[in-house]
Amino acid sequence: MESAGKIIAVTAGVLGLLSALFTLLIGGVGRAVTVWGTVRIVDYGLGGIVFSLLVIWFGSEMSGRRSPGNAGMVVLCALLAASLGGRLVRWMMMAALAGAMIGLAGALLGRLRSSRMKALNDQKGGVVHDK
In angstroms, rounded to a whole number, what is the distance separating the alpha carbons of residues 60 and 5? Predict the structure, then answer.
């Protein structure tokens, strides 16, 4: 489950980055012809780029350890990218949130399984292998 969450989060981060670059391009073209409100579109593009890169970073680190912290950071960065990145980035970050939830569930289930195996080892005094 952690690998699936990682793949979904990284893919959504890359697509969010492309969407943010497209938003930045549209804002730049609008700014070049001096259309009102394009400064905000450029800011949306920059916010989407920064937080999409962070989603890619934390998403790639998600399956390295059985820590739910990286999945939590993907959730935080995806929410910030969705709020600061514009409409296209927002759609991609919804997929990143789904990947983070899958990775979070995998990390928590893996942690639960390892603690259960440790408890069984302590009770029986031997080695219990995961089936």
Answer: 10
Q: Which amino acid, one-letter code, is at 10?
A: V
Model pLDDT, residue 65: 63
State how far the alpha carbon of 57 is from the alpha carbons of 31, 117, 121, 126, in Å.
31, 31, 36, 40
- CA separation for the pair 104, 71 (Å, rounded): 5
Give Rg (Cα) of the chain.
20
What is the sign, positive or negative, of the torsion defined by CA atoms of 126, 111, 12, 38? negative
Q: Which residue has the tokens 């919804």?
A: 94
Query: How crowded is residue 98: how many other Cβ atoms within 10 Å of its Cβ?
Result: 15
What span, in angstroms and rounded, lies between the C-alpha atoms of 17 and 19?
5
User: In angstroms, rounded to a whole number, what is the distance separating the alpha carbons of residues 10 and 60?
Assistant: 6
The model's pLDDT over 93-119, given as tens digits with 9 standing for 90+, comes to 999 999 889 888 888 887 777 777 776
Domain positions in the chain: 2-105
What pTM was estimated for this model as a whole?
A: 0.75
Residue 84 Cα to chain centre, angstroms: 15
